[in-house]
């Protein structure tokens, strides 16, 4: 072998060794690049947030056992209970008073007793009623006290109770019996014997207190698709107010623009040839209006968001922390998501942020549609927040949290993975500047946001509830509506109330109005309300006194009374409206948080309406009142079935009390008018159908707090922008090697239905 060959082989060997060393060194460095970050350090003890925590499944069971053993009356499980029997309707946590909680959180006060609120329907009593008990202390209760009179000023009448699943079952059985009286009509109109038709409830149920008379709309039922788009033109009015199911009656029938006393009368008219019938074929699953089955084969996967070093937030018990934020979260089975003790950089900004109600009010030329005003809290906004689909409802790698509830059952149920938490890269700078003058540099910060999300399916509609926490100390609350529209049978002048979206389907116009409670504590509990807006003044220019300048100036006003702070829906509102603290920032401005509402609400129900007081919160896009323990919510689940004598009337909260240096609450209404159209088939899309509000720091800090973010980017023309040490963005190429191993897809959301 020649010397030249030996040298070549030696060189190749050295090169191979060098390459292997580089690979090994790279592999050694990879774990340090990809290793998960340690959890964020907490500045408040984790377990203190448990003062707000939802009940555990075991606590719910303990409350049920206690009530069964100590009330001294027979209790039937609600899923089986007749109206003439007693049952436990639902159980929720009883949050202690604010004074107790703050003494515990901020002072040296003892931990408040943990208690539950139990709601019972007493149908087996001389005077049937709804009673609310506080039960405690948990986990092993030894006492209960009736708080109904304290909360509502008297017993709650029994007819105000929400309709239970058992009641709907009995109503459907009655309707099926009545449909059998019109066999020839059903065969002609719907290719049906009644068993393939499904009913949809309306609400409220009548026109005066004590009524429990409901229109039910009938649809063709097709497996695997939303029946809401297949009305058959038949609607029935059922009186189900009697305690005894045997006394319930079908009061009236509507078909294709005409009213009949019974299904027998309807059949008689049809047989006599006096009834115009629209002959509908039973829809087929592969061609039904509104099918959501994909029409194209799967394509390549879209972008995937992941955290190279694991989540930068922490979820422990009922508390989330993220880059200075700390939030205690929970879920009311009726009214849905609620948050407490929201802090930024250790300072409480919001004591309570909670959803109060969601109203859907419809128009139609059919009786069911024209009389529908759904108050979704009475159906269960939190209870019907089901399991979220990873990778679609929330990012695949989000943290998913189970929620427990007890409603219409003696056994707690779990909606697995029904709340998600994730950090969202909005692909938008939170702030940035490119300097092309004097000195050349770039500075910016990505808009990464902590998102807490849950989604409620309320019959046909799906509401996506988002609560977002930004790096500049702002809180954003947003709701999107999607799901199926509700529809009426198209007949007559139907297009006066919506758009035709199918051969016989009218997409009925409606409004969505959503109400929130925001108990802001800006630099302490005592706040005032200040407005700022622009005006023009006409002045002579001071340098020549010959020309006029239209100079904008800032008009500030400190509102004194609640009446001044009640801003009617859709009326002009000051552009800047803030909760202000008595203390100031470095620049001698009051430390404040601004409320900024983003809404496209429809018109509120006329005040002359007999049921308007039950939704009187909808009169105002914003109302600020003094906080009171006896005014915990703006509405009640009992308002749905007796809106004519509402159990809670929000308008009564506004009684012109002083709101200067007081503990204040902002009540915010957002919403939009929806006129369904062809593109709402199969589902309403979220694009353009999102509303909400911001809580934004306004002179609360001395500068934008996001300047302290470790995600900040800055580089100048004199730097090597490709160097990882000088520019964090240059480090991202190595982070792509940290793509996570995604867990297998799993969904168990159908198991709890």
From TrEMBL:
Domain (Copper amine oxidase N3-terminal): residue spans on this chain: 161-258
One annotated GO molecular function: primary methylamine oxidase activity
InterPro entries the UniProt entry points to: Cu_Am_Ox_Cu-bd, Cu_Am_ox_TPQ-bd, Cu_amine_oxidase, Cu_amine_oxidase_C, Cu_amine_oxidase_C_sf, Cu_amine_oxidase_N-reg, Cu_amine_oxidase_N2, Cu_amine_oxidase_N3
Post-translational modification as stated in the protein's UniProt record: Topaquinone (TPQ) is generated by copper-dependent autoxidation of a specific tyrosyl residue.
GO cellular component: plasma membrane
Sorted UniProt keywords: Copper, Metal-binding, Oxidoreductase, TPQ
Active site: 376 (proton acceptor), 461 (schiff-base intermediate with substrate)
The enzyme's E.C. designation: 1.4.3.-
Record text on cofactor binding: Contains 1 topaquinone per subunit.
Listed transmembrane segments: none
Tagged with keyword Repeat: no
Pfam assignment, any one: Cu_amine_oxidN3
Family classification: Belongs to the copper/topaquinone oxidase family.
Identification of the protein by name: Amine oxidase
């Amino acid at each position: 072998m020649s010397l030249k060959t030996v040298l070549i082989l030696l060189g190749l060997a050295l090169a191979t060794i060098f390459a292997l060393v580089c690979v090994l060194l790279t592999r050694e460095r990879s774990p340090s690049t990809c290793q998960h970050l340690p959890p964020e350090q907490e500045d408040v003890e984790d377990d203190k947030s448990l003062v707000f925590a939802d009940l555990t499944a075991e606590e719910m069971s303990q409350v049920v056992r206690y009530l069964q053993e100590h009330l001294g009356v027979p209790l039937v499980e609600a899923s089986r209970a007749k109206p003439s029997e007693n049952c436990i309707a639902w159980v929720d946590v009883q949050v202690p008073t604010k004074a107790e909680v703050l003494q515990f959180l901020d002072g040296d006060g003892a931990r408040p007793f943990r208690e539950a609120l139990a709601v019972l329907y007493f149908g087996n009593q001389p005077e049937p009623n709804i009673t609310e008990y506080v039960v405690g202390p948990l986990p092993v209760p030894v006492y209960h006290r009736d708080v109904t009179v304290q909360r509502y000023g008297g017993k709650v009448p029994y007819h105000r109770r929400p309709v239970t699943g058992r009641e709907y079952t009995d109503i459907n059985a009655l309707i099926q019996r009545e449909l059998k009286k019109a066999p020839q009509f059903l065969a002609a109109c719907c290719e049906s014997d009644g068993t393939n038709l499904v009913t949809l409830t309306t609400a409220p149920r009548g026109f005066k207190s004590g009524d429990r008379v409901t229109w039910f709309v009938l649809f063709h039922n097709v497996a695997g698709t939303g029946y809401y788009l297949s009305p058959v033109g038949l609607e029935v009015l059922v009186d189900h107010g009697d305690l005894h199911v045997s006394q319930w009656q079908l009061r009236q029938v509507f078909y294709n623009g005409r009213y009949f006393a019974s299904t027998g009368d309807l059949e008689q008219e049809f047989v006599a040839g006096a009834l115009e019938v629209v002959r509908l074929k039973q829809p087929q699953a592969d061609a039904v209006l509104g099918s959501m089955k994909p029409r194209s084969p799967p394509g390549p996967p879209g972008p995937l968001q992941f955290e190279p070093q694991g989540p930068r937030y922490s979820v422990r018990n009922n508390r989330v922390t993220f880059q200075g934020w700390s939030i205690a979260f929970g879920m009311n089975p009726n009214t849905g998501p609620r948050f407490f003790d929201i802090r930024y950089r250790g300072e409480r900004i919001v004591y309570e942020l909670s959803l109060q109600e969601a109203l859907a009010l419809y128009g139609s030329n059919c009786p069911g549609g024209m009389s529908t005003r759904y108050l979704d809290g009475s159906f269960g906004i939190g209870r019907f927040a089901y399991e979220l689909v990873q990778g679609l409802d929330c990012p695949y790698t989000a943290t998913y949290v189970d929620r427990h509830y007890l409603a219409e059952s003696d056994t707690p149920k779990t909606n697995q993975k029904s709340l998600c938490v994730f950090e969202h890269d909005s692909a938008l700078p939170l702030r940035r500047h490119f300097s092309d003058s004097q000195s050349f540099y770039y500075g910016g910060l990505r808009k990464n946001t902590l998102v807490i999300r849950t989604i409620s399916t309320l019959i046909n509609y799906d509401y996506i509830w988002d609560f977002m926490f930004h790096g500049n100390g702002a809180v954003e609350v947003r709701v999107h509506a999607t799901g199926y529209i509700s529809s009426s049978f198209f007949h007559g002048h139907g297009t006066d109330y919506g758009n035709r979206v199918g051969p016989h389907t009218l997409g009925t116009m409606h409004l969505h109005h959503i109400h929130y409670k925001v108990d802001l504590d800006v630099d302490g509990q005592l706040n005032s309300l200040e407005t700022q807006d622009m005006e023009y003044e006409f002045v002579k220019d001071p340098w020549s006194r010959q020309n006029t300048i239209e100079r904008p100036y800032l008009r500030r006003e400190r509102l004194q009374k609640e009446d001044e702070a009640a801003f009617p829906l859709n009326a002009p509102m000051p552009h800047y409206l803030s909760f202000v603290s008595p203390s100031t920032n470095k620049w001698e401005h009051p430390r404040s948080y601004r409320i900024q509402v983003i809404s496209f609400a429809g018109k509120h129900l006329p005040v002359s309406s007999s049921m308007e007081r039950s939704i009187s919160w909808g009169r105002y896009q914003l109302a600020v009142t003094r906080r009171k323990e006896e005014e915990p919510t703006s509405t009640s689940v009992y308002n749905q079935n007796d809106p004519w004598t509402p159990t809670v009337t929000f308008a009564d909260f506004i009684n012109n009390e002083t709101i200067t240096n007081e503990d204040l609450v902002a009540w915010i209404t957002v919403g939009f008018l929806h006129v369904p159209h062809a593109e709402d088939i199969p589902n309403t899309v979220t694009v353009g159908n999102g509303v909400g509000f911001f809580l934004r720091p306004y002179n609360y800090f001395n500068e934008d707090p996001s300047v302290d973010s470790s995600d900040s980017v800055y580089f100048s023309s004199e730097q090597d922008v490709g160097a990882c040490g000088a520019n964090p963005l240059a480090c991202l190429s190595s982070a792509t090697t940290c793509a996570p191993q995604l867990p297998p897809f799993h969904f168990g959301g159908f198991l709890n239905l």
